[in-house]
Design goal:
The protein is built from six helices and four strands. By secondary structure, it is an alpha+beta fold.
């Protein structure tokens, strides 16, 4: 089934926006009471675009506007949350792209594994009603 023209126009020309909306919507759909203060890496290359994406997203979705109340920037070397996100992204990439990740990376991957905890994922379909229409699987 082809994606409706309006969604194709909304997402296909701006992959960054699609990813940004998917992350924000996914986080907000985890709990009806969740509110977000988004912190991004302070990068001259990307900061301006993040502000544009944030404002566009809030203008398009009243639920997100009501619950996603702030966007800030920080140096990743000084912000623990950004450091953690960088570390998780690095380890995930290494786990899927390297034949044998470095021993320290393998140890971090093992620490981050879910073990016996139940986990799930918010799954979005490209031919669905957009990122806000995700469904929880595996919980």
């Amino acid at each position: 089934m082809a994606m409706p023209h309006t969604l194709r126009e909304r997402f296909w020309h701006d992959v960054q926006y699609c990813g940004f909306e998917a992350c924000i919507s996914g986080a907000l759909h985890q709990s009806a009471n969740a509110v977000l203060h988004v912190t991004c890496d302070l990068s001259e290359e990307y900061a301006r675009n993040c502000v544009t994406l944030f404002n566009k997203l809030r203008a398009r979705d009243v639920m997100i506007k009501a619950r996603c109340f702030a966007l800030t920037f920080a140096e990743d070397e000084r912000h623990a949350g950004l450091q953690a996100a960088d570390m998780i992204a690095y380890c995930s990439r290494a786990e899927h792209t390297e034949r044998e990740p470095q021993p320290i990376v393998q140890q971090i991957i093992e620490i981050l594994r879910t073990k016996d905890r139940k986990v799930g994922a918010l799954v979005y379909r490209a031919d669905g009603d957009g990122p806000g229409s995700g469904e929880l699987r595996g919980l």
